[in-house]
Amino acid sequence: MSDVARSSALATSGGRNPGSAPRRSARDSSASWRWSDRVGLAFAWLLGLLFLAATAAIVLYMMVQGIRFVRPELFVTSPAAGVSEAASGGFLDPLLGTVIVAVMAMAIAFPLGLAIGVWLSEFGNPSWLARVTESTIEMLAGSPSIVFALFGTLIFEQGALAFLSRTNDGVVYGRSFFAAAAMLSLIALPLIVANVREGLQAIPGHVREASYAVGKTRITTTRRVLLPAARPSVVTGAMLGVGRIIGDTAIIVILLGATLRFTSAGDVPLLGTLKGTGSTLTTFVYANAPTGDVNQPHKAFAAGFVLLSMVLLLNFAVDVAARRGRRWR
Amino acid sequence: MTNASPPPVRRLPLDGTEATVVATGEQPTVAMPAGTAPGAPSFVSAPRRRIASAPLAIDRMQVEQLSIAYGSKLAVREVSLPIRQGEVLALIGPSGCGKTTLLRSLNRLTELTKTASMKGRVLLDGEDIATLEPTALRRRVTMVFQQPNPFPMSVFDNVAYVLREQAARRPRRAALQGAVRSALERAGLYDEVAGDLSHPALRLSGGQQQRLCIARALAADPEVLLLDEPCSALDPQSTQVIEQLIVALREQVAIVIVTHNLQQAYRIADRVAFMYLGEMVELGPAEQVFGAPREARTKEYVSGGFG
Q1: Is the confidence metric ipTM above 0.85 for this complex?
Q2: Where does B17-302 sit in CATH, by number?
Q3: A214 and B138: CB-CB below 8 Å?
Q4: Looking at CB atoms within 10 Å, which of A86, A230, A239, B285 has the fewest?
């Protein structure tokens, strides 16, 4: 409860300082609030600090543990089947797997999300189709990824899509980088659409009209004026999408196989890998956690540290992107 | 504009006595300078930017019996007026009187509003604008808006954007240098930005941004320039610069300006159209509309009685 005392002291102390800027006056007056409002304020402070503490604890713990166990050779050695931490190799394959699924899924989700976002914001005609699209995207955003994973197996086990994964005696395996990336793109899509759309809608109408008023078409205006103006939001959407993709586990387990190493299907070098199975950092952590099959927590901490660093870096990039760019009044 | 003295403050009567006096037709209590009719607003002897009428005025546009409705609500009722190069035409009137709608209909921007419908016609150099391609029309009748809205690119590209075909990246920078420069010069901005044409346009000051928007509108070499309250978001200093610019430009291009600022209309306009509830109540030379309005409603409005 010391937090509460400190926070309410913080909230009221400004009022006694005669030199404080006039902008603070709204907060200064909390001394004269009703007691219920003051309790509410204290409660809000308490909750805020609690969440902050919880987040800080997770991040700091993972950082400390990660730095303890992460070693350079882990990044360059493939995982191996071994009973001890020393014999089980590194996480080269899962790390590459994370990068590959992120690139492949974004290659699908980004252009699609950009197109849908632009269409919804700038065209949206016929309006019933726009409404249907909107609620479909919202539904995608709300669905758990395991549902996409199951649906993905259903699709990619079809004979017609056999060329995208391993086949054995006419049985389509249905697990590959292609299959995983296709379904992962669906969980990134809503974030991209929402951000592109918001970015475009935040542009004042008179800016569009200024472009029309010098004889430009809607498409030209979108390409040359609106999308550049919305770039921070577009980048934010893409980053958040990547964050969701690299953090997903269910789709990787079901559609990528979560195998120890890359297992190529066929002899073509790159295509074979993409048609084959593999894993990502999330499934690697899952397998190496004390409850997993491998149970080598040091590896799990090291990989978790790398994953967390990637996500934090992405969040930082989002912040930078969002702060750039100037707005109209 | 280095050390221009601040423009004299011109007050509209605020106590309301003059308006009521005018309305009852009695002698105004405020002393009026010689040569102005009784009841004229107090700024009618103030200095004007427009020293004399332009030597030559050519008809550019002809609005004929134009009505515009949003859904079932009539915003503009059967307005007819000529728009001439060599003159500044100011549209004045209280908020919601249809002046902006009328302005936007001149380059068919009203069509962007789904519910808008139009009757009557507007001729541009004898051609009905409804028969023109909207993009072609809007290059001949360009517009500047209330809020400065440069595009999120460099000063140079803002102007070059207009000169290029739709989204093309050609012609290249070098080929456009002259045209961009001339547009910036005509908008009186070149000297201030000449040092760095690749400066982001959104980092210019508000007044500079608005002049960039004027440069952009001039770059297409339009026959008519529409201005929708171009100074209402600007400081007095920038307003003065832009007003002088408008008066200087009227010989190259026909200018229609919507303004809420009566003093501004008086300072820069050659002709003034007073609109009220969608109708054009009165159209005439600025001296006449402000100094000796024919209609009672005009008289009341320009003397601050309502609006």
Answers
A1: no
A2: 3.40.50.300
A3: yes
A4: A86
CA–CA distance, A9 with A29 (Å, rounded to integer): 13
Q: Taking a C-beta distance cutoff of 8 angstroms, is the pair B122, B108 a contact? A: no
pLDDT in tens, B174-193: 889 999 999 999 898 999 99
Out of B139, B146, B202, closest to residue A214 by CB? B139
Spacing of C-alpha A105 from chain mean position: 12
Q: Does A218 touch chain B (CB under 8 A)?
A: no
Question: Which CATH homologous superfamily contains domain A74-323?
Answer: MetI-like (1.10.3720.10)
Cα B69 to Cα B77: distance, rounded to the nearest angstrom: 9
Residue B104 in tokens = 């936007």
- B91, containing H or E segment: strand B88-92
- Residue extent(s) of CATH 1.10.3720.10 domains in chain A: 74-323
Determine whether the interchain pair B149/A206 forms a contact, defined as Cβ–Cβ distance below 8 Å: yes
Sign of CA dihedral A16, A22, A23, A25: positive
For the entire predicted model, the pTM comes to: 0.80
Sequence-separated (6 or more) residues with CB below 8 Å from residue B181: B190
Q: Where are the beta strands (DSSP E) in B93-176?
A: 116-124, 127-128, 141-144
Give every CB contact of residue B23 below 8 A, 6+ residues apart in sequence.
B300, B305
Give the closest of A204, A213, A223 to B142, CB-based.
A213
Task: Tell me the pLDDT tens digit for each residue of B126-182.
Answer: 899 999 999 999 999 999 999 999 999 999 999 999 998 887 887 888 889 999 999
